[in-house]
Amino acid sequence: MNRENNYPYTGAHGENHTVMPHPAAFPQSTDVEGAVMNEPRQSRSRRQAQPEQRIHEQPAFVLHSYVYKESSLIIDVFSRDHGRVALIAKGAKRPHSRLRGVLQTFQPLSLNWSGRSELRNLVSAEWVGGMVPLESSALLYGFYLNELLLKLTAREDPHPGLFDHYVTTLTRLANTESAQIALRQFELAILKETGVAADLSVNVHNGQPVEPDEIYVVDPEGGPRPALMSDTAPRVSGKTLLDMTSEDYSDPMTQVQSKLLMRALLAHHLNGAQIQTRQILIDLMQL
Fold it and tell me: Which of 11, 28, 191, 203 is 20 to 30 A removed from 213 (C-alpha atoms)?
């Protein structure tokens, strides 16, 4: 299998931009093809006996794509009602394919697909429009969102609320609103939607509301507790935790502490998997 080496992106006037190499940014996108190609014959027979699924006019975004055989693509999409789905876009790289140029990241699409297996067939894709393209650093922030979705959501696990939050975050990034605030809100939203976020407003030791003037650490599996001298986890004020709960990031200290806290929580729930786009952003800032 031959992978693409760059992220393609089409600007507002149709120009093509090559954005960034991705040596290992999205490792989960390779599991579908491997699972299908190495599937035992008996398992394939059971799959073929299942009824074919046909999905029509599903709102979706392309999270990642790579070359399959010579002229096709395998795309990982995030759909509103079916969650993350892997689709094969047959012939999408042929010069006269109707799919060519449509399957771009950060562009709202309406997709039709069918199939029985985990890797389904893309039937058609139409560009919906209505969103401002991401540019410059906002483009990298968008890839960061995509990487979080690929690594923290399960296939075919619907999260319509998270889908709407994704659309809102892309819009805010495109309109040059505070990227740091938008990212913190999306990071917390994805942990909540996938059911792993603790209640940041409650002291897990006594069940009482956190105190704004107290200092806490957050157990990723339990929630906030008073900080101890021996703790190595990020220390945050109760005010920061309450601000995050109410999505109020106007306080500069809340912005700083929430960034460190979310970095630690994401590292825990990613089980050691690295976020490649974050490292790219750090490297760029050091140039």
Answer: 191
